[in-house]
Amino acid sequence: MRRSVISATSVIALTAAHPALAQDADVTYSLNGTPGLLEIPTAQSADEGALATTLSHTDGQSRAAFTFQLTDHLSGTLRYAFVDLYDDTATDIAEAELERGFDLRYRFNDETDYVPAIAIGLRDLLTPGRFGSEYLVATKTFGDDLIVTAGIGWGAMGMRDGFDNPFTDEPRPVFDDDNAEGQLASDDWFRGDAALFGGLEYQINEKWGFKAEYSSLDYQETPYGPALDVDAPYNIGVTYRPRPGVQLGLAALHGNQLALSGSFALNANNRPGMSGAETAPAPVKVRSAAERNNTSAPPTAALRVALTKLLEIEGITLTGLEVTETTARARYINDRYRSQAQAMGRVARMMTQIMPGRVDTFILEPESRGIPLSAARIARSDIERLENRPGAGQTLLQRTRFTDAGDSATLSDARPEAARWEWGIGPYFDLDGFGGGGVELDTGISLRGVYTFAPQLVLSGEVRQSVVNADGDEPGTDDTPDVRNVRSDSDVYGDDGIPVLQSLTLTHYARPGRDLYSRVSLGYLERMFGGLSTELLWKPVNSSFGVGLELNHVAQRDSDMAFGFAEYDYEVTTGHLSGYYDMGNGYHTQVDMGRYLAGDWGATLTLAKEYDNGVQISGYVTQTDLSYEDFGDGSYNKGVQITIPQDFLTGTATRSSYDATLRTQVGDGGARLGVNGRLYDIVRDAHVNDLSDTWGRFWR
Fold it and tell me: In sequence order, which residues have a C-beta less than 8 Å from that of residue 524 and are 6 or more positions away?
């Protein structure tokens, strides 16, 4: 398991370590993954939108941490650590025990010439005891090279040379290993003895730096405590930054240990692929006065053939066309561009090349899964006038009218003869966080196939052959016998080394009414469950709000991931009422209320930040009616989801992305069915709010 978590985090780290990344040279990362010296934090912050993965190792402790700068002042860190721990008698040692932690840190102010930056932090705030700490820290820079830090810590950071708490005389609760991991440790915060810490960092040159600190951490031989030796409170180390976004470190800790570390960072606001490697768009063809007044026009059939060929150059498929005396309406599938606004711009440019001069209005209708998503009504004259003007994107957006898509009956069918059968083979990489042991990396070869019966009716499937997941293990001890094992047995699924059926699903999409979208999926829906999944979504084109209803009846699949359902003999009806709200500035929230796979009832709250570059970071938490004892380790379901578009890293136009979910822990409570193609994710990128966020790409 130790290898699996470190390997999984390395995937993110290697993805982040792109040679063109820009990172604030003044911020370095500690062994814990937060901006800091070695063991202690500083009050510095990375730039808003920075994502950093840190891997570190010293004798008795290996850590993998993911840190995200949520705002200019607020950051969060999710950390996995393998630590040697004492048993309940503080005599024997259990090696490489998995510990999960989550930190929050808030910087109150920017540093000035005379006032240091000051920050407050909560370390492992979801885990009472052991590593839980709180701190206040101040950092001041002197010149371009010297950074000095001092602070006061509580909990694990208040153990060396501690003194009476200056704020309260309430004692800190004694750590109890029987406490449910994942409960908010607010009863511990800022209680017990406090201790001082401090240090400095000197930047020798652009690549090399030196760190020295006095650490208030003092690991002691206590029951369930970390079995780490500390001879002295002094730590020193060097950092080496071979390129922006990459930091390597070597440190001498506690007078008796060496530590190695590596931090890899990117910023969601700064696209590594620079301005993009896609081909330049065709220039807008401006009509002459004679062309505007010309009443003759080619027949719609000829225009349809010509526009089809032009859009094929752009990786866009024309599916329908309607041309009247003054209006041209095009419906199309965007197969290439992450931004639907960019696809609209490419379609509009091509339409200026061939549409009759009398046509002065373009109506552009993106389509997905055979259903039209929206309609953008744009004046052709605006496109001609604004192409090369400053502020053209915002001006055109203000003049564009967005509505629901028009009637399909009046469109001339331009849909090409579908390739009924399509398939592909290639590698896959999965971060599996469902099993009880943490996060595992699974990789191998995937064979995917799609058979299209009609644009709205598709049969899709995937067969996988893993090259690492062949342990053949039996399920471990069931710590929650009163709760169905709907996720905790995940790590035994498909682990016998033979090919597995990942999914095989027949899906139908439709538009049952205005502002309504529907999906019906039947088959082997995911690796652990199969059955029937239905969904209905209400989402007006111009609205920030949407409502969805999903109902499923599924059975648990056999662990060999073939065609059977007999091994577990478990069926369940699940469903959720979902509310979606776009808060603006890239922030989205989602609330799902209903029944989960284990039969428990509750709700999931998700908050996401999506950048114009398509990078999305979201955090979610699920609370159900299961008690902490029944849920098991973790207490409730929570985690962080990361989506990085492929074009963000490569600059090449594509709609593909890399996705990962990191969890502090997951139990069988709060487990939701994994269905591909949920409606909101399909629909919203062609609606007004998402189009507005990337409308500047209309001209690209």
Answer: 461, 501, 503, 504, 505, 530, 557, 563
Task: In whole angstroms, give the CA distance from residue 228 to residue 254.
Answer: 10
Which residues have a Cβ under 8 Å from the Cβ of 627 and sit 6 or more positions away? none
pLDDT digits (tens, 9 = 90+) for 91-142: 888 888 888 888 999 999 999 999 999 999 999 887 666 788 999 999 999 9
Cβ atoms within 10 Å of 298's Cβ, excluding its own: 14
Q: What is the dihedral of CA 265, 268, 271, 276, to 10 degrees?
A: 140
**What is the C-alpha R_g of the chain?**
28
Residue 468, amino acid = V
Secondary structure (H, E, C), 20-50 = CCCCCCCCCECCCCCEECCCCECCCCCCCCE
**pLDDT recorded at residue 344:** 97
pLDDT, one tens digit per residue, over 160-204 is 888 988 888 888 877 766 655 556 677 788 998 999 999 999 999
d(CA 609, CA 589): 9
Check: CB of residue 341 under 8 Å from CB of residue 700: no
Tell me the whole-structure pTM to 2 decimals.
Answer: 0.85
447: its two tokens: 């064979």
Q: What is the 3-state secondary structure (H, E, C) of 250-291?
A: EEEECCCEEEEEEEEEEECCCCCCCCCCCCCCCCCCCCCHHH
Distance, CA of 612 to chain centre:
14
Percent of the chain whose pLDDT exceeds 70: 88
CB of 568 closer than 8 Å to CB of 478: no
Q: What's the maximum distance between 2 C-alpha atoms anywhere in the chain?
A: 94
Looking at the predicted structure, is the pLDDT value of residue 517 above 80? yes
Q: Enter the tokens of residue 633.
A: 């380790």
The Cα–Cα gap between 441 and 465 comes to: 14
Q: How confident is the model at residue 682 (pLDDT cuts 50, 70, 90)?
A: very high
Cα separation, 133 vs 512, in Å, equals 54
- For 572-589, what is each residue's pLDDT tens digit? 999 999 999 999 888 999
Give 112: exposed, middle or buried? Use CB within 10 Å, 0-12, 13-18, 19+: exposed
Instruction: Name residues whose C-beta falls within 8 Å of residue 143's C-beta, 6 or more positions apart in sequence.
Output: none
pLDDT grade for 4, boundaries at 50, 70 and 90: very low
Residue 245 backbone zone (phi > 0: left; psi -120 to 50: alpha; other: beta): left
Q: Are 272 and 21 spatial neighbours (Cβ–Cβ below 8 Å)?
A: yes
**Cβ count near 286 (within 10 Å):** 13
* H-run or E-run covering 11: helix 2-16
- Give residue-wise pLDDT tens across range 587-611: 999 999 999 999 999 999 999 999 8
Q: Residue 472, Cβ neighbours under 10 Å: how many?
A: 9
- pLDDT for the residue numbered 685: 92
Long-range contact list for 465-471, CB < 8 A, 24+ apart? 465/498, 465/499, 465/500, 466/442, 466/494, 466/495, 466/497, 466/500, 467/443, 468/441, 468/442, 468/443, 468/444, 469/440, 469/442, 469/444, 469/494, 469/495, 469/497, 470/495, 470/496, 470/497, 471/495
Question: Among residues 363, 269, 294, which one has the least CA distance to residue 49?
Answer: 269
Domains of the chain: 2-267 (2.40.160.40), 289-417 (3.30.300), 435-680 (no CATH)
**pLDDT at residue 666 greater than cutoff 70:** no
Where is 150: in which H helix or E strand?
strand 146-155
CA distances from 543 to 72, 155, 540, 618, 647 (A): 29, 47, 5, 21, 28
